[in-house]
Write a structure and sequence with these properties.
Blueprint: H1 12-20, H2 23-28, H3 32-59, H4 66-70, H5 74-85, H6 111-120, H7 122-125, H8 132-146, H9 155-171, H10 177-185, H11 194-209
Helix pairs in contact: 1-3, 3-9, 8-9
Length: 213
């Protein structure tokens, strides 16, 4: 069965959400972090093809063989998917640490600051997407607030931690308001640091509410 593919009017969140809820994906990739990795790969492949398409138009080289040379054949795709299915290391390939937020490569964003934005400034909170990010926020918040030990994590909580690690690796450098809010929802501190994130959020809050978190 074919994997889901993005539509031209999709943004990343819309496609990733649809892809992760697809029946074929759920059947083929039961673990959330595996499914997320495959969906992200589909999205990145789509973006690359769009980029190449417009580059060809600009250069007037529609007959170029470059795209054919860069395409992944079916055998290579199968190998890549099998590798993703077998990914079990944490926090990254080659490591053998317990799956826990304390073993993450990425700093945790303060719970209190995130909660104030969510409760008092909903217009700012929804800048960072409203589906997968909100779900992750709830699961990770429960783990942190209840201080759930690694050996008592539910399978869904375990997957939430793994998914956070994979997502953070892809979005660590995002420093725009929407990206920073998304990082906050995923309980992580981006490449510009905690103070930058707080200052940027306060700027957005002042613009919309004349207030400060």
């Amino acid at each position: 069965m074919p994997l889901p593919k993005p539509n031209l009017d999709d943004n990343e969140e819309i496609f990733i959400t649809r892809c992760m809820s697809d029946a074929v994906m759920i059947d083929e990739f039961g673990k959330l972090d595996q499914r997320f990795a495959v969906c992200e790969m589909q999205w990145e492949s789509f973006k690359q093809k769009i980029k190449e398409f417009y580059e060809d138009i600009e250069e007037d080289e529609m007959e170029s063989e470059t795209q054919d040379e860069e395409e992944i054949d079916d055998d290579e795709l199968v190998i890549m998917l099998n590798q993703i299915k077998e990914m079990t290391n944490f926090p990254q390939q080659g490591d053998d640490q317990t799956v826990s937020l304390t073993n993450s490569k990425y700093e945790l964003f303060p719970i209190e600051f995130a909660a104030r934005i969510k409760e008092k400034y909903p217009d700012v909170w929804k800048l960072g997407g409203n589906i997968l990010g909100n779900e992750q926020y709830r699961h990770l918040l429960e783990i942190r607030e209840k201080k759930i030990p690694s050996d008592q994590l539910t399978p869904r909580q375990n997957e939430a931690i793994r998914l956070r690690e994979a997502w953070s690796a892809r979005h660590f450098e995002n420093s725009r308001p929407a990206g920073v809010i998304a990082q906050i929802k995923w309980h992580m501190v981006g490449s510009r640091g905690l103070q930058y994130m707080k200052d940027l959020m306060n700027e957005e809050i002042k613009k919309r509410y004349g207030d400060e978190a």
